[in-house]
Every structure is written in structure tokens, then in C-alpha cells.
């Protein structure tokens, strides 16, 4: 998603947990047609924010409202599915079947960070996060809660098995996986999301993302290795 606000507090869960298996994606649970519908929702949010109606989604996706309700339930269900679909684009690299090494751990952390930065700095995630922030605390929309639960909280669940595997292999040293994730979050995201949400021009290109992701992994290993 990244769909990332603040990783400190996990609100009441609004959707099924993100798949914690290495390399798995929530998107694998969706049909190609359902993915097309959720992409249509994201494009609507880029154009209009989150003030769209189910009818507008139906028109944009050439899909009946009855089908949308059948697949996703109410509007909050549609928003939750959309956030989870966008967050699922952050890929968790598969780990080697044999014992984790310092090189494979760094490669996995770097790959995760690269995918994460790529997703959160894209137009779709920026629109999603701007909409969530605009309604935060207003009581007008549950989008902020949905983004928090299915963005950073889900990222923490997805990364936790890798962190625990690293500790089990003697490559990482930490008492609390949540604390370790928050440190990794800060190293990877830094002020990047704030800058893109505020409309800073000059988005990160592929090379810059790769450099930042590698540096974040190195710093994390220096802190917890």
C-alpha cells in the first residue's frame, strides 16, 4: 500500500489478515474481473477522491451494482477490498528453502523495501492515502481506519515471519518484532510519503528507489544484526 500512515497502533481489524506466507499475495484470492473492478475504484479515487458512489464504480467498471454488493458487500467492504488489493502489490520475496544467510536476509529485506517504496510512491497509493488523511478524525469515512489496518499493520504481519526467521538463524537480535518493524518502517519510508502526499514534484525513479531500499536494509542490519 503502502498504504502507510502511522504504524504504532493497530485498530480493530476490518478485513481478513493479509497472507503472511512468503511471496503470497492477497491479489491471488481475487479473480481477474474483480481485480479490474478494484483498479477502477482506484482510478476513480485518483480523479475524485473517495466521494464516489457504488453506482459510479458500476459504471466505470461496466459491472452491475448487484454484482458489486455480492462480491464486496457494502461500500466499506468495497473500500477494504480496494485497499487490500493495492497493498497486495507490495511483494514479499520468497526465502530460500535452506538456512537463511546474511546475504539472503539482506536480499529479502531490500526486495521488500523496493516493492514497498514503488507502491506507495505511485499515483494510486498517493490518491488513496490523501483521501484517507482528508477524512481522518472527521467521522465521515472509515477509510483511514481501513488504510491503517490493511496498510502498515498488514505490512508488519507480512514482514514478521522474515524478521523471526532472521532472529532464529542468529542474524537478527531484537526482543519485540513490532519494535523491529517500526524501525524498518522508519528507515524505508523516512519522509518519502509525506513529501509525495504534499505534492512534491520529482518522484523517485527506479534507481533512487533501489538505492534507498538497499541503504535501509543495510542500516536495519547494522542496528539489529
Automatic annotation (TrEMBL):
Keyword DNA-binding in record: yes
DNA-binding span(s): 53-72
Domain HTH tetR-type: 31-90
InterPro entries, sorted: Homeodomain-like_sf, HTH_TetR, TetR_C_Proteobacteria
Keywords of the record: DNA-binding
Pfam families in the record: TetR_C_7
Keyword DNA-binding in record: yes
Superkingdom classification of source: Bacteria
Protein name as catalogued: TetR/AcrR family transcriptional regulator C-terminal domain-containing protein
Amino acid at each position: 500500500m503502502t498504504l502507510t500512515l502511522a504504524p504504532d497502533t493497530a485498530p480493530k481489524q476490518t478485513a481478513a489478515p493479509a497472507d503472511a506466507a512468503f511471496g503470497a499475495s492477497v491479489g491471488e484470492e481475487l479473480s481477474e474481473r474483480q481485480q479490474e473492478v478494484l483498479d477502477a475504484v482506484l482510478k476513480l479515487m485518483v480523479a475524485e477522491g473517495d466521494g464516489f458512489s457504488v453506482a459510479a464504480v458500476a459504471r466505470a467498471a461496466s459491472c452491475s451494482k448487484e454484482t458489486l454488493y455480492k462480491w464486496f458487500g457494502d461500500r466499506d467492504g468495497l473500500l477494504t477490498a480496494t485497499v487490500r488489493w493495492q497493498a497486495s502489490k507490495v511483494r514479499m520475496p520468497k526465502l530460500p528453502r535452506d538456512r537463511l544467510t546474511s546475504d539472503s536476509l539482506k536480499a529479502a529485506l531490500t526486495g521488500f523495501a523496493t516493492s514497498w517504496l514503488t507502491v506507495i510512491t505511485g499515483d494510486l497509493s498517493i490518491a488513496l492515502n490523501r483521501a484517507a488523511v482528508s477524512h481522518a478524525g472527521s467521522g465521515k469515512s472509515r477509510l483511514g481506519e481501513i488504510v491503517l489496518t490493511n496498510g502498515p499493520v498488514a505490512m508488519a504481519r507480512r514482514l514478521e515471519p522474515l524478521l523471526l526467521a532472521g532472529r532464529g538463524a542468529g542474524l537478527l537480535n531484537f526482543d519485540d518484532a513490532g519494535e523491529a518493524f517500526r524501525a524498518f518502517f522508519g528507515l524505508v519510508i523516512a519522509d518519502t510519503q509525506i513529501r509525495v502526499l504534499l505534492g512534491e514534484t520529482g518522484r523517485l525513479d527506479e534507481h533512487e528507489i533501489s538505492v534507498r531500499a538497499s541503504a535501509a536494509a543495510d542500516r536495519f542490519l547494522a542496528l539489529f544484526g
